[in-house]
Specification:
The chain is elongated and about 105 Å long. It has 13 helices and 15 strands. Helix content is 48%, strand content 17%. Strands 3, 6, 7, 8, 9, 10, 11, 12, 13, 14 and 15 form an 11-stranded mixed β-sheet that branches. Helix 2 packs antiparallel against helix 12, helix 9 packs parallel to helix 12 and helix 11 runs antiparallel to helix 12. The two termini are 25 Å apart. The longest helix is centred in the first third of the chain and has 40 residues.
């Protein structure tokens, strides 16, 4: 270790006779100026790094304990951000998987003077057959909500006035392809087919929650429900409905029966299940296939390129996990500051000796700052690597696709440097203010 020394270059006068030159009695003494030999004894940046890293390596146990806080802080920050992005991507994928495969066609509406709206278009009854001819369409179905007015839906034909009033399940009329179109599943029994719809058979399918409300959990005993006083045989109980979750609370009957018994004159919407990416094309062609003479009377809603809900979920999850990671990182920074300050207190005699040998305040402060920065950098690198590893392992166990912005992984390592710099500022300032005389006397 070479600390700078205060030196003064002096010119040395050497007699000519000592130098081996000839002299004469009358000649004046001749002197030769000898230039001082330059020496490189400045405290360079390489010396600073070497000294700081040597002191760090001399206490391996303390080094590990000091870095532990930074490793946990950076690791938790990177891991939580990565897990948040991965989880948000999975949630968004599930929402988009249901939304990206649905095209909905409805009649255009016009507003009257009294504020009411009425449709100006009409969906043809053979609309599903027309839409199924389009490329990219896998299933299609008509459906409409049926307003019963004052009529009720009940599992018994007798109306008991003393029984407590219960909320009525919704009534929906649909065509035979409705179950496949909205990705429903049969819990028990079956779904009605095209023959039921064409003949107007009085059969009904119950959503899972509607079945619980009506007290029906099996269909092998051929139960019936009464819709507006008309008996309908329950042929199945269904669940699922990824794109129309409200159907779990509904009673579903064929359109043919709704037209004959309940006066339904038109379908409210046509829903088509499509392959991913075919939305804009199917939406444009569906209105032409359903109303070739007046396509402007219908409107088609195609899935968006990305779900706003997915972006909202990802943003909210990132904020929560970033706050948790910041708290853990703060704890790591305080750990570095405490251990560095303790190191300063223990090395006061050493600091005094260095100052006595010519070290400046800036050099002493720089040494302790470099120590903190190196500790923070090592902790940041290890923590970032551990965080990325946690994200990959969790994603592999859950069979997810790991998602992590590389900026957070690289930024985690650099953040360790910032933490070390901030944590080492006060201890370095304290070390620079130690007076050599007081330190050598053992004073704090």
């Amino acid at each position: 270790m070479r600390w700078p020394r205060l030196r003064r270059a002096r010119d040395t006068a050497v007699p000519a006779s000592d130098a081996g030159s000839e002299t004469t009695p009358d000649a004046a003494p001749v002197t030769t100026l000898v230039q001082p030999i330059p020496r490189s004894d400045r405290f360079t940046f390489q010396d600073l790094v070497a000294e700081a890293t040597t002191d760090i390596g001399s206490r391996p146990t303390r080094l590990v304990m000091t870095m532990l806080g930074t490793v946990l802080g950076i690791g938790s920050l990177v891991a939580t951000v990565g897990l948040a992005q991965t989880a948000a991507a999975q949630i968004a994928e599930q929402f988009d998987a249901a939304a990206a495969t649905q095209v909905v066609v409805t009649p255009e509406e016009t507003s009257g003077r009294d504020g009411t709206t009425s449709p100006i278009g009409r969906l043809p009854w053979d609309g599903p057959e027309r839409v199924l001819r389009l490329a990219g369409v896998e299933d299609a179905a008509l459906l409409t909500d049926v307003d019963l007015g004052d009529e009720t839906i009940a599992a018994v034909s007798v109306n008991d006035p003393s029984a407590p009033a219960q909320a009525q399940p919704a009534l929906v009329a649909g065509s035979a392809g409705l179950l496949d179109t909205v990705s429903g599943t049969v819990v028990t029994g079956r779904f009605f087919d095209e023959g039921h719809d064409r003949r107007g058979d009085r059969v009904a399918v119950l959503g899972s929650r509607a079945a619980e409300r009506l007290g029906i959990n099996r269909v092998d005993s051929q139960p019936s429900i009464f819709i507006a006083g008309i008996a309908y045989a329950v042929v199945g109980i269904v669940d699922g409905f990824e794109s129309r979750g409200d159907l779990r609370d509904a009673v579903i009957i064929p359109l043919g029966a709704a037209r004959g018994d309940l006066g339904v004159s038109a379908a409210a919407e046509l829903r088509a299940r499509i392959v991913v990416g075919a939305g804009p094309q199917v939406a444009e062609q569906a209105v032409l296939a359903l109303a070739p003479d007046e396509p402007d009377t219908l409107q088609a809603r195609a899935p968006a390129a990305s779900s706003d809900l997915s972006q909202s979920v990802q943003a909210d999850a990132n904020v929560v996990f970033l706050l948790l990671g910041a708290v853990a990182l703060l704890a790591g920074g305080l750990g570095i500051a405490n251990v560095t300050l303790l190191s300063v207190m223990e090395r006061i005699p050493e600091i005094g000796l260095r100052r006595a040998l010519g070290a400046t305040r800036r050099q002493v402060a720089a040494q302790f700052m470099v120590e903190s920065i190196v500790i923070g950098l090592i902790g940041g690198l290890i923590g970032a690597a551990l965080g990325v590893g946690v994200v990959v392992v969790v994603a592999a166990v859950q069979q997810w696709a790991a998602v992590l912005n590389p900026v957070f992984a690289v930024g985690g390592a650099l953040l360790g440097v910032v933490v070390g710099l901030a944590a080492g500022w006060y201890p370095a300032r304290r070390a620079a203010r130690v007076e050599p005389v007081a330190a050598l006397r053992g004073a704090v």
